[in-house]
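TA notes, week 10

Several of you asked for a full example with nothing omitted. So below is the full record: structure tokens for the whole chain, then the designed sequence directly under it. When grading your own attempts, check the secondary structure regions first.
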């Protein structure tokens, strides 16, 4: 079993490419992975390379939870992925270590973090709904712009009434089949 220490960090907007060496100079690591600040959750090549690189027994060192991710949900997902690979995850600023060999302790902690992430999602949805309701009362909320004009909707309904293929109609009007069916139901 190999025991590599691996560093992961994200450069901040103020840091330059040359500062990557400064971040790792005080400690010795077998590998270092880094992402740019512009990289978002869907595009984190450094993080994905890190996860592919890690093996059982490795330790991943991260300065802080916020340098790993900005969402609790992503934090839980990444932590679980690493623990499933039997990798230890160490957060220096928070003085927190998720050890793969202490699952009976780690599982409840991750479960609580997942509940907090679920709470955050629900709170965000509630705030959004309140904001939309408030905007509607002020008359400022109009919703999404309609994909088709009234004339196009009439043409769509006429062509659908003649038995034309729904797939062809969706392609011709450049809408999804779901949107097509929504227009057809609204008549």
């Amino acid at each position: 079993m190999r025991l590599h220490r691996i560093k992961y960090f994200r450069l901040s907007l103020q840091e330059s490419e040359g500062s990557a060496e400064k971040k790792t100079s005080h400690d010795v690591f077998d590998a270092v992975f880094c992402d740019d600040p512009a990289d978002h959750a869907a595009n984190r090549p450094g993080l994905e390379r890190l996860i592919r690189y890690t093996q059982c027994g490795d330790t991943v060192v991260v300065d802080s939870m916020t340098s790993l991710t900005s969402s609790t949900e992503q934090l839980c997902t990444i932590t679980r992925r690493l623990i499933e690979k039997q990798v230890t995850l160490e957060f220096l600023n928070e003085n927190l270590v998720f050890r793969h060999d202490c699952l009976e302790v780690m599982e409840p902690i991750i479960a609580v973090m997942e509940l907090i992430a679920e709470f955050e999602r629900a709170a965000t949805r509630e705030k959004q709904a309140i904001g939309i309701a408030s905007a509607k009362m002020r008359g400022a909320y109009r919703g999404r712009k309609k994909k088709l004009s009234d004339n196009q909707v009439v043409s769509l309904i006429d062509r659908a009434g003649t038995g034309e293929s729904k797939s062809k109609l969706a392609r011709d009007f450049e809408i999804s089949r779901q949107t097509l069916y929504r227009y057809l139901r609204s008549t």
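The mean pLDDT is 85. Use that as a sanity check on your answer.
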